[in-house]
Design brief:
heterodimer; A: mainly alpha; MetI-like fold; 2 domains; 14 helices; B: about 325 residues; mainly alpha; globular
Chain lengths: ~290, ~325
Amino acid sequence: MYFRATKGEKVFDVFNTLFMLLISASMLYPILFVVSHSLMTDTERALHPFTIIPTELNFSGYEFILAKGSLLLSSFQITFFRLSVGTLLSLIVECMFAYAISKRVYPLAVPLTMMIAFTMWFQGGLIPSFLVMKSLGFLDSIWVFVIPKLMNVWYILLLRNFFAQIPAEIEESAKIDGSNEMGILWRIILPLSTPVLATIALFHVVYHWNEWFMGIIYISDQTLQPAMVILRQILSQANAANMYAEDMGGSFVPPTSMIQMATIVVVSFPIIAAYPFFQKYFTKGLMVGAVKG
Amino acid sequence: MDNIANRQAIPKKRNQTGFIRFIIKHKFYHLLVLPGVIYFLLFHYVPIYGVIIAFKDYNGFGGIQGIWNSPWVGFQNFSNFFNSTYFWRLLSNTFIISFYQLVFGFPAPIILALLLNEIRNNRFKRIVQTITYMPHFLSWVVIAGLMTLLLSNEGVVNHLLSYFNVDRIDFLASTTYFRSILVGSSIWQSIGWGTILYLAAIVNVPQDLYEAATMEGATRWQKAIHITLPSISFVITILFILQMGKIIDQNFEQILNLYNPAVYEVADVFDTFVYRRGIVQGDFAYSAAVGLFKSVVSFILVILANKAVKKMGQEGIW
């Protein structure tokens, strides 16, 4: 492709590579820092304030936050509930809706598409939404994590576009073979759509893992908070052990910094460890969505 | 909604049997969209209706029905807001932070994409991409935690400064540095992820353009500026307009996790104010008015961006 690099281009290549190394380091440093320091006591940390290689392996922070029946462990139950139930329910209703509006023969397809697209540009805002939730009885209900953000317009349009480009002949031949409409959707359309379904499922999973605002505004019962909210509370405590205190009487309590950093690691590790394996799907979903614009 | 749409879909002269036939004929599709129609009405359109609370004297009782029964006050809530000390503070903070975000945050992924495109070692390029995507998957709660470790009084940066005999600075409580921290951390979070679409567009640039330019003796810099950049300008404009729609909203989670009363003066924006005043203090009508004002401003920005883009000869989004 290129024949001879000029001297200037060689210099540029070196600097460009250095820049890439630098930017990668800036992304990795905070993560490695928090992992290594979550294993170090305060005295060790004071001796090695910058290190990203733990000088000792003290797991007491982790033992403390993951002790049987701890606040963090039970909050993960809430996270897993919303993640599994929320993602599954969202996928089901989004597929149903998207399939119907992908059909030209359905007279409501266009009005319904406009109805949902409008909500992308105009929303009631925080306060009216809060009052609606209150009226519907979502305060201090675990379903507030699932229902109010059940359907995402962007994903519905993404699915609709995907369904629309599946050749009609496939459906027609299935109809001739005696499949009913439900059978066609379930046995033909959805299996053909697994890549896009996987992408959208992953987007929902990441959302549910990272979401914390619903818990802050709608939930006052501590036992219903997802892990991300618990992390937020622990980070804002001057004495993080208090958060876990109830049944800790008399036992060893690690320093606050250790508890905080260990909690950060535990709460963000699963997603950091998993995303490189699913990267292909995430980027693909972003692309399909963008083509539509 | 279903009803209204139905009426539009069939000619008015048709009688009742026509309507019933319409329902039966498409009953499968009707059933499929039913949960969605209920969802969007309940969670998107009822709140839009609820916006009228901004024009009422709502005491906070009776939930959404209570809005209906409370007295109209016209633009009282708005004028209270415009005359308060908060108005200019929120407006200028929102605009300054959004402006920084636009000037520094928007071009950052474009530059990174162009530079990544110049990396010839594909393996190295892929590794850099994967690493820079990573912060996109971290919640702002986590990033705020990391920022505190780095920037607080006892943080890494202050440790480093102390080696140079610089006094400790509590960056997160400093009105001088706070906005830079906001913009910096949001670039940190989104720069890698933001390159995806640009890189995809760069891949689609016809190779013969580059070959022809090489024959003519163009340098890589010239090729990047005169071929790559113009070829992806349509992606840039679309993302720019979409960005304008979100720009006022996008820092909300970030600010809510990073700010503290010491920096309200420079960090408080419409959304954080609505949250504190409305949800925390329960002043619903007033904060709904602030929220509505913000929505209108954000809507105007999108329209302006679209207009500006069209003036520059690019295709807008409508």
